Amino acid sequence: MADTLVDVPAREPGDVLGAYSERSEYVHIARIPEAGPGVRNVDPVDAINSKAPLDQFVGTITPSDLHYVRSHAGTPNIDPAKHRVLVHGMVAKPLVLTMADLRAMPSISRLAFLECTGNGWENWKTAPDDVTVQNTHGLVSTHEWTGVPLSFLLDLVGVDRASRWMLAEGDDGAAVARSIPLTDEVIGEAMLAYGQNGEPLRPAHGFPLRLFIPGFEGNLSIKWLRRLKFGDQPFMTRWETARYTQLLTNGKARQFQLRQEVNSVITSPSGMMQISPGYNRVTGLAWSGYGKIDWVEVSADGAKTWNRARLNEPVLSKAQTRFDLDWVWDGKPTKIVSRSADEKGNVQPGRKSFIAAMGENALFHYSAQQTWSIDAAGKVRNVLD
Ligand SMILES: Nc1nc2c(c(=O)[nH]1)N[C@H]1C(S)=C(S)[C@@H](COP(=O)(O)O)O[C@H]1N2
Ligand SMILES: [Mo]
Fold first, then answer.
1. Does the keyword Cell cycle apply (predicted)?
2. Which ligand is nearest to the CA of 114?
3. For ligand 1, what atom is nearest to the CA of residue 70?
4. What is the reported pLDDT for 61?
5. Which of 27, 120, 188, 328 has the most crowded Cβ, counting Cβ within 10 A?
6. From ligand 1's centre to the CA of 27, what distance in Å?
7. Out of 227-231, 307-311, 315-319, 354-358, which region has the weakest mean confidence (pLDDT)?
8. Ligand nearest to the CA of 218
9. Which atom of ligand 1 approaches the CA of 118 most closely?
């Protein structure tokens, strides 16, 4: 800590008050576009996703312009005045809705995380040691989402009680479409969202309308939503056959692994940071698709002994929770790692037991503990432990 005050600056008028507030010139914070697992430093035209800078965030809410993006065919340009949503299938009264119709309906707002099932996919096998936490975990973000509760719409169209599945289809070049099980939880928590962090959705995130399903894999939250169809079984789109299945060790593929697991990662110190001996604040993020985070533990000796971290309020269901822990580094090489548990009793597994259960052929839902090694010079690196 400094022991003197710097000179008081001259009392002069500051910068003009503009129509937007820009970030400080001293803050450099941006997403990184990637072209696939581990394919970094790409031209944005080749990117299939763009990862959020978790190492630079404070608190739990992701700024709108830094929410991660994952799109299969780029961002379509949709005029909200012309946009329509068809709701049909096993319903008493099929409807075509405009954005004005939806805006006139009751709305809810909720803070919740969205996570791509591909988050962490580098670490299944061969993650290099020079990655940052943005590379390893940047496909998760938390926003306040605002929209019409799905349950309101179900009542409006009179969904048949025998309908157990809903098809949601997007209006992008890839026409991404997924079957969503109509469980009580989904009916109670899903929304047709038109707002993010207090403003209309941004085009990359589904403007003018997307589905949002808290706790479930990101690809179910269909962007640029154009159609909901109700049926009594899954629709078996190519997204649930060719994509989004998990190849298991026994050679069989698992379909419909829809929930995001309990997870956590230390965001500071994290990959490629430089630390000094003495006091270091260890901080990170934890989240679970099952509900609230119950506890987070941090180990500073390579998972031999664990310490309870502080959970920073608010701790919300299916939202990212920030944790921190005071730590004095003695300057010796070591490894730091976090693990979390949720209110349903799920505990984040270590990498070895995770790989033993899931094998190495799977690509999605990587949620094992993340270990960072620290060498004698204080350099932090990714390590598969
Ligand atoms: N129509 C459509 N919806 C989509 C996608 C897409 O490519 N097209 N990508 C899905 C995937 S894989 C994820 S992880 C989330 C990402 O949402 P975001 O880009 O707002 O973070 O949107 C999902 N919804
Ligand atoms: Mo995704």
1. no
2. 1
3. 19
4. 97
5. 120
6. 28
7. 354-358
8. 1
9. 14
Across the range 335-343, mean pLDDT stands at 98
For the sheet with 84-89, list strands across it: 95-98, 84-89, 225-231, 165-170, 177-181
Q: Which of 34, 116, 121, 141 to mutate to test the pocket of ligand 1 (most atoms within 8 A of CB)?
A: 116
Task: With cut-offs at 50, 70 and 90, classify the pLDDT of residue 246.
Answer: confident
Name the pLDDT band for 105 (thresholds 50, 70, 90).
very high
Question: Best of 31, 169, 176 to mutate for ligand 1, by most ligand atoms within 8 A of CB?
Answer: 176
Q: Which domains does the chain have, with CATH numbers?
A: 84-251 (3.90.420.10), 263-383 (2.60.40.650)
Does residue 6 surpass a pLDDT of 80? no
CB 138 less than 6 A from any atom of ligand 1: no
- Is this structure's pTM higher than 0.70? yes
Give the residue, out of 34, 50, 71, with the most ligand 1 atoms within 8 A of its beta carbon, to mutate for a pocket test: 71
Atom of ligand 1 nearest to the CA of 68: 21
